[in-house]
Specification:
Number of helices: 27
Number of strands: 2
Structural class: mainly alpha
Distance between the termini: 47 Å
Strand content: under 5%
Shape: globular
Order of helices and strands: HHHHHHHHHHHHHHHHHHHHHHHHHHEEH
Length: about 600
């Protein structure tokens, strides 16, 4: 179809898409729409609570599955496998660190959010501190983060998948993804997101396990992985350099704090700052937990999601490494011309590791299923991001600018915002393709580490330190934003040098790893918040009731979203189940610590 195109020329798929594949894709999507329609008929969507929080009546298993599916979009499949192919297993830390953040979410943050009776995260800060400006700022920041880290990466990874599987041009694939997603949003509606997520999680995990088993068979099992990986070198190399060689510490989670690509200090402390932002203060995630019928269900959902988060090392990252072993010339290319021929990016092609495995190893039929899952993962994450972003803009920003806006105007603005977000994200894709040495996952984490730590600092102080007030929090956020944007700007001006090019970046970039920067940024913001709060008068104690960890009232009914008072979701959950959740959490932490120690 596009054989003449330079980027697509080499990409004739090895196995043509068969009829079986096509049938599977069609059946899968019809099933998805059916689940969507069934679940949206179950809940009364005409109340605000029914629409935004699924009637606060979700059981633990769809919540856990949805938490997992929301965080494992197609970007993660491609990103984790790609970083695994490029640098080994250290990237697993990003997944396993989530365990502690998820437990903190269910045991610490959700009780505070529930007792304060809120729907969105900016709304919590507004109730806790008063004033409008923090709420406006947070909404704006969430929009920025959606464009830079969520929409553009998902679009890029979905398009890359289409490109590897069908051999189409990257931009054509992107436009195709957008059209289909738009149709999906209109037909499927968004109430259905949690149940369709549960369906996708099931298929994603089963498909990924099947592919992992097949990949391990190809190299003769786990014992051969390390040896084979260390020999996986491309045939075309850049002379007098070492960047074609796999890392010697590929099979270690903890790496040198100074010279490591993912230093253990950053992966322990800096990552915790980012995980707290993502799992405990991000709208998409917290909304899932707030929809639980009781606190025990929220806790059990967190535990299920944490168990699922233990899987990616074995079903995504190691298969990514195997992909490098099987196809070193494509996945591990370092020569810029060769890379441009293979995947259209001169900095490296590690991102194609996972799609390459799917196309080469899966039998027809199953291949169609994996592609359908990737597309569906992409669409579910895109639809929910589009929905939450346009809601944030219309409700938190537009209504402040135009208080008299009518219903039709708000709906129109919401649709226009979605179109603008899409346009910006498409424009951002070429920048994304060439940054962070072509590793998608590292790019996502790096951008997050410049913008998210100030938010973590403010939320943690808001929940645990009653003395924190509006002036401190606002100026802390501003200081953090300036520092973060300065670093992000430097990254854009001085990208990571290519193989064989000397590193001439300023020391702020070359010597301070982005995970260490996240720690410093969070600490700096915390210091400004503390200073600003101590220099200005405190909030009256009456204002803090139900809004911090120390001022929770353990028994009061909380106002629901639609203004009527309702029993707290904790509905006196039986102590037996509370105990089961507690025991499970301890078991989970033991497994997590054992895995860390084993692979350290």
């Amino acid at each position: 179809m596009m054989e003449g195109n330079s980027t697509a020329g080499s990409f004739t798929p090895a196995q043509q898409f068969s009829v079986a594949d096509l049938v599977v894709v069609v059946v899968y999507f019809s099933l998805n729409v059916a689940v969507g329609i069934w679940s949206s008929c179950r809940v009364n969507r005409n109340t605000v609570s029914g629409y935004f929080l699924a009637g606060r009546d979700m059981a633990w298993w769809p919540i856990g599955a949805s938490l997992f599916a929301s965080s494992e979009g197609s970007g993660l499949f491609i990103g984790l496998a790609g970083t695994g192919a490029a640098g080994g297993i250290a990237v697993t830390g990003f997944e396993w660190n989530a365990t502690y953040a998820l437990l903190a979410l269910a045991w610490v943050f959700v009780p505070v959010y529930i007792s304060s009776g809120i729907v969105t995260m900016p709304e919590y800060l507004q109730r806790r501190f008063g004033g409008e400006r923090i709420r406006m700022y947070l909404s704006g920041l969430s929009l920025l983060l959606s464009i830079f880290t969520k929409i553009s990466t998902d679009l890029y990874s979905g398009a890359l998948f289409v490109q590897v599987c069908l051999g189409w041009d990257l931009y054509l694939s992107t436009v195709l993804m957008l059209v289909v997603t738009g149709l999906y949003t209109i037909v499927g509606g968004l109430v259905a997101v949690i149940y369709t997520d549960a369906l996708q999680t099931l298929i994603m995990v089963l498909g990924a396990i099947a592919l992992a088993v097949k990949a391990f068979n190809e190299i003769g099992g786990y014992p051969n992985l390390e040896e084979a990986y260390l020999k996986a070198v491309p045939s075309k190399i850049v002379p007098n350099t070492t960047c074609h060689l796999p890392r010697a510490d590929a099979m270690h989670l903890f790496r040198d704090p100074v010279s490591g690509d993912l230093p253990w200090t950053g992966m322990t402390f800096g990552l915790s700052v980012m995980a707290t932002w993502y799992w405990c203060t991000d709208q998409v995630i917290v909304q899932r937990s707030l929809s639980a019928k009781s606190l025990s269900h929220a806790k059990a959902g967190s535990i299920l999601a944490s168990y699922l988060k233990m899987l990616p090392l074995f079903v995504i990252i190691m298969p990514g490494m195997i992909s490098r072993v099987l196809y070193p010339d494509a996945v591990a290319c370092v020569d810029p011309e060769e890379c441009a021929r293979v995947c259209g990016a001169t900095v490296g092609c590690s991102n194609i590791a996972y799609p390459k495995l799917v196309v080469e190893l899966m039998p027809s039929g199953l291949r169609g299923l994996m592609i359908a899952v990737m597309m569906a993962a992409l669409m579910s994450s895109l639809t929910s991001i589009f929905n939450s972003s346009s809601t944030l803009f219309t409700m938190d920003i537009w209504r402040k600018l135009r208080p008299g806006a009518g219903e039709r105007e708000l709906l129109l603005v919401g649709r226009v915002v979605t179109v603008v977000l899409v346009a910006l994200s498409v424009v951002w894709i070429p920048i994304l393709q060439s940054s962070s040495g072509g590793q998608l996952y590292i790019y996502i984490q790096a951008v997050t580490s410049y913008l998210a730590p100030p938010v973590t600092a403010v939320f943690v102080l808001a929940v645990f330190w009653p003395r924190a007030n509006e002036q401190g929090a606002f100026w802390g956020l501003m200081a953090g934003l300036v520092l973060g944007l300065a670093r992000m700007g430097l990254e854009l001006v001085y990208p990571v040098p290519r193989c064989g090019v000397p590193d001439r970046r300023p020391w702020l970039l070359a010597d301070i790893h982005y995970l260490h920067f996240a720690m410093l940024l969070c600490a700096a913001t915390g210091a400004v918040v503390a200073g600003g709060s101590l220099l200005t008068p405190p909030l009256p104690p009456a204002r803090l009731k139900n809004l911090t960890w120390w001022t929770l009232s353990r028994e009061s009914p909380q106002p629901s979203v639609d203004g009527t008072s309702q029993e707290p979701p904790d509905g006196e959950c039986p102590p037996f189940w509370a105990r089961i959740c507690g025991i499970n959490a301890v078991v989970l932490m033991c497994i997590n610590i054992f895995c860390y120690a084993y692979f350290a």
